[in-house]
Design a protein that fits this description.
This protein is of the alpha/beta class. Helices cover 32% and strands 18% of the residues.
Length: 297
C-alpha cells in the first residue's frame, strides 16, 4: 500500500492565525490517521511579502502546540533550480509563450472577470505584438471541460480557457509563480494528499494540468471550509487578524476540530493541545467536515 504523505505549507507573512491552524489540524490529523507522513513547507518564494521572523514564529507555534513533522522543513526560497527545470521542461513541450501585457492592459481588454481576477484574453498567444518586449511567461491551456473529485466539496469542474485563461508561470519581476512552485514542491516531496483551505479550490485544476504535463502523479485533494469574518471576508494574518493559537493552545485546537465538524468527547474539552491532536489523529472523520464556510467566533 502507498504511504500517505500530507503537508502544511504556510506563507510567512505573519503569525499563525486560526484560519491557518484549521488547515494545519486538518492536514496533520488526516495524514496521521492514515498512518502517514506529515511535512512542513515554508512558502517564502514571494519575498516582498515575507515578514522577517514570521517563519520561525510559525514553526515554534506548531511545535509548542504538539505538531510533529517528518524530515526537514522545505523552504521555497531555496528551490529555484527545481522550478526553473520544470519551466524548461514545459517550454520544451511547446506549452509556454512570452507575454508583454501589463495588468492594466489585461484589465482593460479581458472579456469578463474570473474567480481570481481578469481572464487573460490571449493577446500574445500567437506571438508578441510588434515593438513589445516580453514581461511574463504564460502556459497555453486547453479549451475543454475538466474536473476532479474533492474529498470534501465533491465534483469540481472548470474550463481553463474560459474560466482562467493562459496563466502566468514566471512573473514580470522574474519570480516563479505560485501555481508552478507548489506542484513541483508537492511532486518532489511525494505528497499524495493535499489538505488545505477552500480558497485554493479554484487553483486545483491548474495544478493538476501542470502535474499531468510534467508527468508527475496527481495527489488526492481535500479542501477545508474557510474561516470568515461576519462580512464574509477571509481572516488574514497579513493584517494581524485572528486569535494567536499559543494564547489558548488546547482551546484553539478544540475549536479547529469543531470547525471541521468533529464531535469531541466531553472529557477532552479542556485537554491540552497535544492530547487533542492525538485524538484527532485517531478519530477525525472526513465525512463530518462541512462543505460550507462560516464566521469566526
Amino acid at each position: 500500500m502507498t504511504t500517505i504523505t500530507g503537508r502544511f505549507a504556510p506563507s510567512p507573512t505573519g503569525p499563525l492565525h486560526f484560519g491557518s491552524l484549521v488547515a494545519a489540524v486538518g492536514s496533520y490529523c488526516l495524514a496521521r490517521r492514515a498512518g502517514g507522513r506529515w511535512l512542513v513547507r515554508i512558502e517564502d518564494l514571494d519575498t516582498p511579502r515575507v515578514v522577517p521572523g514570521a517563519a520561525d514564529e510559525i514553526l515554534f507555534t506548531l511545535e509548542t502546540l504538539g505538531f510533529r513533522w517528518d524530515g526537514e522543513v522545505v523552504w521555497q526560497s531555496r528551490r529555484q533550480e527545481a522550478y526553473l527545470a520544470a519551466l524548461e521542461q514545459l517550454h520544451n513541450q511547446g506549452l509556454l509563450y512570452d507575454c508583454a501585457c501589463s495588468r492594466k492592459e489585461i484589465l482593460a481588454s479581458a472579456p469578463h472577470p474570473g474567480e481570481e481576477g481578469p481572464i487573460y484574453p490571449g493577446t500574445c498567444r500567437q506571438g508578441l505584438p510588434a515593438g513589445r518586449l516580453p514581461r511574463a511567461v504564460r502556459i497555453r491551456v486547453p479549451d475543454r471541460q475538466s474536473g476532479f473529485i474533492d474529498g470534501v466539496f465533491g465534483r469540481y469542474e472548470q474550463n481553463l480557457a474560459r474560466d482562467v485563461g493562459d496563466f502566468v508561470l514566471r512573473r514580470a519581476d522574474g519570480m516563479i509563480a505560485y501555481q508552478l512552485a507548489v506542484v513541483v514542491d508537492d511532486a518532489d516531496s511525494r505528497v499524495n494528499q493535499v489538505v488545505r483551505g477552500a480558497d485554493l479550490l479554484g487553483s486545483t485544476l491548474r495544478q493538476i494540468f501542470l502535474l499531468e504535463n510534467l508527468g508527475r502523479p496527481v495527489p488526492a485533494y481535500l479542501h477545508l471550509p474557510l474561516v470568515l469574518h461576519a462580512d464574509g471576508s477571509k481572516i488574514s494574518k497579513r493584517n494581524g487578524e485572528g486569535d494567536n493559537p499559543l494564547a489558548r493552545g488546547g482551546e484553539m485546537i478544540k475549536r479547529a476540530l469543531e470547525w471541521l465538524g468533529q464531535d469531541i468527547p466531553g472529557e477532552l474539552h479542556t485537554a491540552p493541545s497535544a492530547e487533542l491532536l492525538a485524538w484527532g489523529s485517531d478519530c477525525l472523520a472526513v465525512g463530518r467536515i462541512p462543505a460550507t464556510h462560516g464566521n469566526c467566533r
